[in-house]
Design brief:
Elements lengths: L2 H22 L4 H4 L10 H24 L4 E2 L4 H7 L7 H18 L4 H4 L2 E4 L3 E4 H8 L2 H19 L1
Parallel strand pairs: 1-2
Antiparallel strand pairs: 2-3
Length: about 160
């Protein structure tokens, strides 16, 4: 990955909270809990997922930077949704997502070329480095912002 691509992904990563917050702007209770299809998440569930995922991602990038070849396990996002009460109020999870992402963006912007070469080992995908981390989490929030808009659209169509 060259510097230009890395900078674009970091900018996209930093913009993730804005994209999600914009997708949630003036959301109604009905839109927040509308399920856009069988097995698909509501906007509320997406926000909780973002907070949980962001915390795990923040720890992973820190482990990559601070430890020698750290090991990462696989997590089941659907199990998290079931066990972590994703029906609870979403506001604190949105703020957790916001500030975890902000702190991690500050770290990403200070990484050296050598930092970007560091790697850990993922239980299912093998070698997992800082650049791969950025390729996954740079667009992650934007993908979920689209998912929130789809859930809102489903609520409007149900009316």
């Amino acid at each position: 990955m060259d510097t230009t691509e890395r900078e674009k992904l970091i900018a996209q990563y930093r913009d993730g909270y804005r994209a999600v917050a914009e997708a949630l702007l003036r959301i109604t209770p009905e839109e927040l809990d509308a399920r856009p299809g069988e097995g698909r998440w509501t906007a509320r569930e997406v926000v909780h997922h973002l907070a949980d995922s962001e915390m795990a991602a923040a720890v992973r990038i820190r482990m990559i930077l601070a430890e020698d070849r750290p090991a990462f396990s696989r997590s089941d996002q659907d199990e998290y949704a079931r066990r972590l009460h994703y029906d609870r109020p979403h506001e604190s999870s949105l703020e957790l997502f916001r500030y975890t992402r902000e702190a991690t963006a500050e770290l990403l912007e200070r990484m050296t070329p050598a930092d970007w070469l560091r790697e850990g080992v993922h239980a299912t995908s093998g070698s997992f480095g800082a650049e791969r981390w950025l390729q996954i989490y740079g667009p992650h929030a934007h993908k979920h912002a689209r998912q929130i808009r789809a859930a809102r659209d489903a609520a409007a169509k149900a009316e």
